């Protein structure tokens, strides 16, 4: 009988590795062993510690610190406030002609992206290395970390906004059926009955000047969103401003987490560390109603950006194999109401990061290594954009990134599917 590898919830120690005896598979490094598929993996939501992640108050402190030590290279701005009144900040660095927009924590239970952005801002704002100088001269990086602070503080997917608050903000919607992405029940272990909210990653619209109309409700996942929430409206305003300033936003990246129990397609013993994608909408050229976006839509560039991300992670896998466990996120999605879908239709190259495990299944477990995987992918992508090399990458390499293997979790597949 095959000896199972370590439980995902057990600490690997030298003695426990030794106890596995001669049939134990080789473990490249202790932390890689921790991320290797185990006897059990569960998608069942549960209460787990998250205090090592950066909360909203700490984010403000850390952005202030980075702005200060950067000597003016990083500029922090308060963009506005969430529905519950929490500040939403942007941090801008670089003076280059290519605009790169980064967002994190639109789903408040998906937290590594915020920490990766802070690490990145710290580097590009303070380093005198040739790489940092090139980024600053070729790129203008604008980051909006923790763009859904209300959801983040509640440690849940949705924001914190009732339908009556929506109709108070948009009086023309009085009397219509609430949007399809309005949560009032239980989702991912969170009870929305007393504090309803929305999956605001379905609240975007490719028409950046769209105003909510009665006839567009309740909508569906295959249709556009509405900018109902202050959070998505703030990101839209930044995107619109960058488009006016630079002609277009070269690249947009949104940082997420997916289910904890996806395994590699060729090795059920290895968990997927990260899924990536550059495709979120059907081809606008052949989709009725979307033809006007076809001339700007650039799937080839999105594929090249994803190849740059994957190449960086495969390079890092030489030292730590876990970074090589990269797969493509499902390519059959058509989600024009996501930020990535809407901004791709406006001509930006787009990259989705889906790191392993949301907080209700992993808590802060593997926080450091998963944050590092996001950082490595962003670092490689930014270097490739700054040097221009990204435009020489073969988009066919994107299609050669393996698909996700199955989810071996023990809870309902429906929960695991709520990962975009
Ligand atoms: Zn997400």
Low-confidence stretches: 1-33
Order of helices and strands: HHHEEEHHEHHEEEEHEEEEHEHEHHHH
CATH topology label of the largest domain: Aminopeptidase
CATH architecture name of the largest domain: 3-Layer(aba) Sandwich
- The total tally of domains equals 2
**Strand line-up of the largest beta sheet:** 1-2-4-3-9-14-12-13
Sum up the overall morphology in one term.
globular
State the helicity in percent bands.
25-40%
Percentage beta strand? 15-25%
The class by helix and strand makeup works out as: alpha/beta
Q: Can you identify the CATH class of the largest domain?
A: Alpha Beta
How many helices in DSSP terms?
14
Q: What is the typical, i.e. mean, pLDDT?
A: 91
> What's the story with the biggest beta sheet?
8 strands, mixed
Overall strand count: 14
Determine the N-to-C terminus distance: 38 Å
Distinct small molecules? zinc ion
Question: For the CA atoms, what is the radius of gyration?
Answer: 21 Å
The CATH H-level superfamily of the largest domain is Zn peptidases
Identify the quaternary structure here: single chain
Protein name: Peptidase M14 domain-containing protein
Keywords: Hydrolase, Metalloprotease, Protease, Signal, Zinc
Organism: Amycolatopsis magusensis
Family: Belongs to the peptidase M14 family.
